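Example record used in the benchmark description.
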Amino acid sequence: QVQLAESGGGLVQAGDSLRLSCEASGRTFSDFAMGWFRQAPGKEREVVAAVSRNGLTIYYANYAKGRTTISRDNAKNTVYLQMNSLKPEDSAIYYCAAHTPPYSNTYGLTRYNYNYWGQGTQVTVSS
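Model output (structure tokens):
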């Protein structure tokens, strides 16, 4: 079992930046690949970014490329999502998630790959 707790969301203006954090507890953090997902009202939960257990392999959704950075600090049991140039369409609840892929350099890309979820943090971007 692993428990995940997100923080860092809030209300910002278009063009601003936010850094979300997700702290894990309960199991060895480096056992898990980590993902950030988001879900806007009436829409499916979609992946924003993912990072492998060893931190060497990273994925970004097309809409996030160039303005988003995912990183992890295994010593602090924390994964981060730095988001820049935020747009109103980025408004959503952001979730971090964890799973244990078979290889250290892989990660899941859909919500169905992930076993553990945080409660989410709201990000609202005003125009």
